[in-house]
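User: Hi! I'm working on a homework problem where we have to compare a predicted structure to a textbook description. Could you give me the structure for the chain below?
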Amino acid sequence: MAYNLLQGKKGIIFGALDEHSIAWKTAERVHEEGGTFVLTNAPIAMRMGQINALAEKTSAQIIPADATNMDDLNNLVTQSMEALGGKLDFVLHSIGMSVNVRKGRHYTDEKYDWTTKGWDVSALSFHKVCQSLFQNDAMNEWGSIVALTYMAAQRTFPDYNDMADNKAYLESVARSFGYFFGKEKKVRVNTISQSPTPTTAGKGVKGFDGFITYAEKMSPLGNATAQDCADYTVSLFSDLTKKVTMQNLFHDGGFSNTGVSQEVIDEFTED
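Assistant: Happy to help. Predicted structure tokens:
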């Protein structure tokens, strides 16, 4: 059901790869709620995904950009304002990649040039996006910037590897940039700490299937899906959350506040 929550609002959505991705679901929901946007991803990711189909479905323009490259980002921001006819109201950062994870390198044996690459793509890119928006004065007052994160920033999950460090950095950027964006431009910056979600990136983590089953058993409301996350993101883009900023918002069916569930107890209790 649509409520016209984003009627007349304009923005940029990073990271829509295929129909399983949270950014893809968010783009569909933003379109349903009356928002218009530019879709962007790195050129290599665009070749791997089906972003053209999403653009056609949502009447969106595609502007390729490497989120680690400031020239690309500045070009993206200025071109987006030209294409959309003014300043932006929302931005979604849905980007994450670990070469160490992809190559099966253990956390205790990282290859540090891979670590640096993953940090740049997954975390520092969020600072770069915010800096480009800030310096280009690209956001309307009461605009909303959202990045996606995961609870491994606070708790240890053995196979999440250096992505846990990246997410911790990402959340810090949201707090720090959120202060300056709020004080100087009345713009909100938040992160959503999402349930484990079977996206292309998520499924790349070792032991993911077992882990998502465990999280389902631990969460009183069950895992939040990509579609659920899209709905939540829309609420953060809307005027209904104008005073929410610098927050890491857990969207995980209650997992983050559950010590142990009865289902997990039953799993490990002998008859």
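For your comparison, note the following. The chain has one domain: 10-267. The first strand starts at residue 10 and ends at 14. Good luck with the assignment!
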